Request: fold
Amino acid sequence: MLIDSHCHLDMDDYANDFDAVLARAEDAGVEKIITIGIDLASSRRALALARKYPMLKATVGVHPHDSGKAGETDWDGLLRLVAENNDAIVGWGEIGLDYAKNHSPQAIQRRQFAHQLELAAQARLPVIIHDREAHDDILTALTASTAHGHGGVLHCFSGDWSLAKKILDLGLYISLSGVVTFKNAVALQEVAKKVPLDRLLVETDGPFLAPHPYRGKRNEPAWVVKTAEHIAQLRGIPLAELAATTCDNTRRLFSIK
Reply:
């Protein structure tokens, strides 16, 4: 059994075959999926899905792309969702910094990221962190915050082993997506070999970043198996061992029984 620790099931990409997507995931051995909020509206949709489908859990947060538009109404709304639904909401995120696309000004991204780390600590939830070309500022913000005291994960990890070690030293987890299956992902494959097995998660980040041999297609939770198979091969361990341990890690991080 596997857990897809990060997917965006509320997105329109799944609207036409949602139940079939979940059925394929279950048939592939995926026992749980964490569907991720990226703004207040998305967080509400993720929560509604988690309420409807027992195999789902939800998170709440504002993605760095949208941080320039977020304000007190959003923060109050997210905190209210957590307070009223702490059985279904298991994390705060996706939050972080994205200097690759800069949909929001970098200074605003940093300010809102720091604020959401405070909110996550207030809510006593683990954080789900997005990091694109912002490694140093991510580390600075995390080091200054107490949020990682409640756990967290750098999702869809895109750095090298040097960055991974610093993230691990903060007590956080590393989550690998289908990118690790790409032939040119040499640095990421080194990370996949070296991360302590008890600090590793797997994810799809669906509908994005489908693994080989589905690269370029809409990603879906069933395909997390391809990512897990590749990591197991890189580490020279049975898939069953990697699956069992990453499931345990995900349950532990997000307090999923």
Q: What stands out?
A: The domain at 2-254 is CATH 3.20.20.140 (TIM Barrel).
